[in-house]
Amino acid sequence: MRVYQKSLAIFLATSALAGCSVGPDYHRPDIAAPPAFMGSEALAARPASTSMPVGDQRLWWARFNDPVLTQLVDEALSQNLDIAQAIARVSQARASLKSADAALLPTATLSASAATAHQSIETPTGRIAQPAPGFQRDSNLYEANLGAAWEIDLFGGLRRGQEAARADYQASQVGVAAAQLSVAAQVADIYIAIRGLQTRLTVAQQQADTQARLVEIVRLQYGKGVAAELQLRQAEGALAQVQASVPVLRNARDSAMNALDIMLATQPGAHRAMLSDTTAIPSAPAIVDTGSPADLLRRRPDLIIAERKLAASNARIGVAVSEYFPKFSLGGLIGTATTVGGNMFTGGANQAQGMLGLRWRLFDFGRVDAEIAAAKGANAESLAAYRVAVLRASEDVENAFSALVEREAQQQVLARGETALTRAQAASLAAYKGGVVSLIEVLDADRRLLEVRDARVQAQVEVARAAVASYRSLGGGWQASSL
Fold first, then answer.
1. What is the pLDDT of residues 293-329, one digit of tens each?
2. Which helix (H) or strand (E) holds 203?
3. I need a labelling partner for 274 at 20 to 30 A (CA). Which of 120, 178, 427, 429 fits?
4. Residue 162: CB partners within 8 Å, gap ≥ 6?
5. How many CB atoms lie within 10 A of CB 380?
6. Whole-angstrom Cα distance, residue 168 to residue 99?
7. Mean per-residue pLDDT of the chain
8. Nearest CA-CA partner of 467 in 74, 12, 62
């Protein structure tokens, strides 16, 4: 009884809903956001932000002032395979949108056929027809028709489907920008890591050379009976320890170079010669006028994609709701049919047909209810995904800002420590030669200097990587005056 009452209520409401699109209209959700990032003030106070020109930050990787990095990013943006996949997804979404657009328009079909038949007289039909005067076992049929059909989108189900397809298409377009941002950031991050590993290798090799000279001094002293064998073996052990770190660093460098080649869609080793020379680690540029957390909603590709997916899921609720209502369609056919080829398109052979169609899932509302519930559940999931994406985007920005500022502070402290320990190393070696201190103190000074130098290089790498992460978390480059 309940099904019949629902059917009657829907039928009585059709006249009022004619021309409307059923289901909820989409409204972009309001996202509460603070007026500024917590780390903005500290970021603006960075030495780089106060001493370096700001300029246009849209091609942000060029602001590292490293021609090789710029070349590699440009190359990756033109041939990376992840970007190629994103572009292919745009083509698929565009095709789906065209299909949704076409569903609102009439369709036409042209058909033609020519057939000949030889009737069996051993079948029931043949036995009945055979005694008839003029019975011919051979017959021909010629037919040509032009048909048209149109589903009238009275309640907007097709329009909601078109709305969902358009949102998906827009999301796929932004997906290309998201892939480009990700690729540029990964290439910059890997390149900075390579330069850092090369610099660490140089530090380790310099330290190994220093340790080797110390071994020679101790060996000469041992040969003269001035130094004990224990001192010689201690110096040799310290040298071996430093030398052992070199293969590990070389392996990490080679792996990073291979990863960079893959990002550029080339075979591993393709850019090895290009990167063979050790150059300085790129310096983190000034990052100012970063905007507010609310600006991320229109700048970060992943947030735009999440919002468009939310819009698509909202439209699909309307598609599901439209199944409550009847579907009307118009159809027509004009053509000609004859058994004599010469009579085609003559008045007697002409034929025409008109049709008004109705399809209504009248006794299937339980399944329709389930489809609507599923669509609403998918929409709720998309809304939650969008909200958490916004929160995580803000988290990414704050983490990147903090890493950039604090790693720079660490680098400055380590640079001062390196200066002091360099002097301490020279003083300890001179004191050892003068017999004032033991070899243990010299080796300890060497070890401490190596550790602080390596830590300072790693901090410098992390500063540059934090700058890359800042640009990535902010959605890529931008023009400050446009914010």
1. 888 888 899 999 999 999 999 999 999 999 999 999 9
2. helix 157-223
3. 178
4. 97, 100, 101, 103, 104
5. 12
6. 13
7. 87
8. 62
Task: Collapse the DSSP code of 27 into the 3-class scheme (helix H, G, I; strand E, B; otherwise coil) and give the result.
Answer: coil
- What DSSP element (H or E) covers 134? none
Burial class of residue 18, CB neighbours in 10 A (0-12, 13-18, 19+): exposed
Eight-class DSSP state of 121: S
Rounded to whole angstroms, the Cα distance separating 300 from 270 reads 32
Spatial separation of the C-alpha atoms in residues 442 and 225, rounded to whole Å = 19
- C-alpha dihedral, 71 to 77 to 81 to 82, nearest 10°: 130
Residue 33 in contact with residue 294, Cβ under 8 Å? yes
Predicted confidence (pLDDT) per residue in 107-129, tens digit = 999 999 899 988 888 888 777 77
Tokens of 192: 């900075």
Strands (E), 69-201: 107-118, 138-152
CB 375 within 8 A of CB 316: yes
What pTM value is reported for the model? 0.85
Q: Work out the angle at residue 137's Cα, subtended by the Cα atoms of residues 132 and 142, and round it to the nearest 5 degrees.
A: 115
Distance CA 7, CA 55 (A): 65
Residue type at 179 in one-letter notation: A
Q: Are 309 and 113 in contact (CB under 8 A)?
A: no
Q: Encoding tokens for residue 214?
A: 């110390």
What's the one-letter identity of residue 359? Answer: R
- Provide the β-strand partners of residue 350: 336
User: What fold is seen in the domain 2-120+136-482?
Assistant: Outer membrane efflux proteins (OEP) (1.20.1600)
Cβ-proximal residues to 60 (8 Å cutoff; 6+ apart), any chain: 184, 285, 471, 476, 477
Which of the pair, 4 or 461, is modelled with greater confidence?
461
Burial class (CB in 10 A: 0-12, 13-18, 19+), 184: buried
CB contact set of 176 (below 8 Å; sequence gap of 6+):
83, 86, 87, 90
Q: Assign 466 to helix, strand or coil.
A: helix
Long-range contacts of 114-121 (CB under 8 A, 24+ apart): 114/140, 114/141, 114/142, 114/143, 114/341, 115/140, 115/141, 115/142, 116/140, 116/141, 117/141
Do residues 166 and 416 lie in contact, with contact meaning Cβ atoms separated by under 8 Å?
no
Distance CA 370, CA 365 (A): 8
Q: Which pair of structure tokens corresponds to residue 291?
A: 């905007």
Residue showing tokens 């001192």: 231
User: Per-residue DSSP letters for 52-78?
Assistant: S-----SSGGGGG--HHHHHHHHHHHH
Structure tokens at 182: 């990700």
Closest among 355, 357, 370 to 324, alpha carbons compared: 370
